[in-house]
Amino acid sequence: MPTSPLPSRPRPGHPRLARALLVAAALLLGLWGAWRSFAPQPANAREQLQAQARRIATLEQRNATLALADRISREANARLQATLAERDEEIAALRADVAFYERFAGSAQRRGLGVHALVLQPQRDPQLWHFTATLTQNINRGVVNAGRLQLQVEASDGRHLRRLEWPALAAPAAAAGIPYAFKYFQQVEGDLVLPRGSRPVRVVVRLLPENGAPLEQAFPWSAVVAPAQSGEE
């Protein structure tokens, strides 16, 4: 007689698999919900990016400002050091002058009125020169020596050597000469204007004392011209 088929039994693993799938789905759903709850919204993210960009721009501007301040400080310090060096040179020169004048005033050797030194400084205008003449004397102690100072320039025009008198070199207000009055020494300053195209060769200092004969003392032009200063415009 025919045999009827046995009824199939359910596999024991199916319920466990279903439960595992349900648990996994629940976990995924929970994670998705948590992410939706705590993750930044697109608007907040955009605001945060903008805030970070502003922060970066502020820091970059601050860094640029600090760099500029540092550069300005370095340049100012360099200028200060250069100024201090110039002042040190001036102080050293003044000390040397004072030492000379002290020795001169107390020297046993008597010297009459004369020109101890002459310095010519070029100006922005190539025809304009500023001069400083140092006058000294110790033969008449305590007596004031007074008079006027004039300069004369021997210059070449390319063909002839001629002497340019003081009235042709000085401003009209100083045509009579620059006054001086001292007991032992004095620095007399003034300006002269050379004719265009003239090449100076020698400069003559002419002293016109109130009491006494005129006195002349000549200097080679190249020996009394001071070098142009680096900071001069």
Please state the average pLDDT score.
Answer: 82
CATH topology of the largest domain: Immunoglobulin-like
Radius of gyration: 48 Å
Spans where pLDDT lies below 50 across 5 or more residues? none
Tell me about the largest β-sheet: 5 strands, antiparallel
Total count of strands: 8
The SSE string, one letter per element, is: HHEEEEHEEEEH
CATH architecture of the largest domain: Sandwich
Pfam families: DUF6776
Please explain how this structure is put together.
- It holds the Pfam family DUF6776.
- InterPro entries: DUF6776.
- The protein has 233 residues and is α+β, with helices and mostly antiparallel strands.
- It folds into 2 domains: 40-106; 109-224, Immunoglobulin-like, CATH 2.60.40.
- It is 42% helix and 28% strand.
- It has helices spanning 14-38, 42-106, 166-169, 221-224; strands at residues 114-122, 128-136, 145-156, 161-164, 178-182, 185-193, 199-209, 215-220.
- The model has no long low-confidence stretch (mean pLDDT 82).
- The longest helix has 65 residues, at 42-106.
- It contains 4 helices and 8 strands.
Keywords:
2 domains, alpha+beta, 42% helix, single chain, 28% strand, 3-stranded antiparallel β-sheet, Immunoglobulin-like, 5-stranded antiparallel β-sheet, 233 residues
How is this fold's topology laid out?
Blueprint: H1 14-38, H2 42-106, E1 114-122, E2 128-136, E3 145-156, E4 161-164, H3 166-169, E5 178-182, E6 185-193, E7 199-209, E8 215-220, H4 221-224
Antiparallel strand pairs: 1-2, 2-6, 3-4, 3-5, 3-7, 7-8
InterPro entries: DUF6776
